[in-house]
Amino acid sequence: MKLSVEISMYPLKDAYIPAIQDFIERLNGHPQLQVITNTMSTRVFGDYDLLMDTLKAEMRRSYEQFGRAIFVCKFIDGDLHPDNTDA
């Protein structure tokens, strides 16, 4: 099963950019996932189990490394990557 996720991270500190950049870089480090980032959010596409396990691990790592943050996520089944014409 494929999954599409839109996620925004809001670190609760003044120096918020390094935490966001680190989270996005780590997501991009998973070659099985497709990641598209813009100024408002990051969209991630891939296998359901892999994507959920990756988000679980990377969100935890962000909390441990940078402290409190809010993650706002939208989930929809299927691969809605713009290059996928089968969606």
What is this entry, summarized?
By secondary structure, the protein is α+β, with helices and mostly antiparallel strands. It has one domain: Alpha-Beta Plaits. Helices cover 36% and strands 33% of the residues.
Write out key terms for the chains shown.
87 residues; Alpha-Beta Plaits; single chain; globular; four-stranded antiparallel β-sheet; alpha+beta
What does it look like?
With 87 residues, the protein is an alpha+beta fold. It has a single domain (2-77), classed as Alpha-Beta Plaits (2-Layer Sandwich), CATH 3.30.70. It is 36% helix and 33% strand. It has two helices and four strands. It has helices at 17-28, 48-66, and strands at residues 2-11, 34-37, 42-47, 69-77. α1 (17-28) packs antiparallel against α2.
- Cα-to-Cα separation, first versus last residue: 12 Å
CATH class, named: Alpha Beta
| Biggest sheet: strand arrangement | 2-3-1-4
Inertia-based shape: globular
**CATH fold node name:** Alpha-Beta Plaits
SSE order, one letter for each helix or strand:
EHEEHE
The tally of strands reads: 4
- Count of structural domains: 1
Beta-strand content estimate: 25-35%
- What is the CATH architecture annotation? 2-Layer Sandwich
Helical content band: 25-40%
Mean pLDDT: 95
Number of helices in the DSSP assignment: 2
Q: What is the C-alpha radius of gyration, as a whole number of Å?
A: 13 Å
- The low-confidence parts are none
SS-derived structural category: alpha+beta
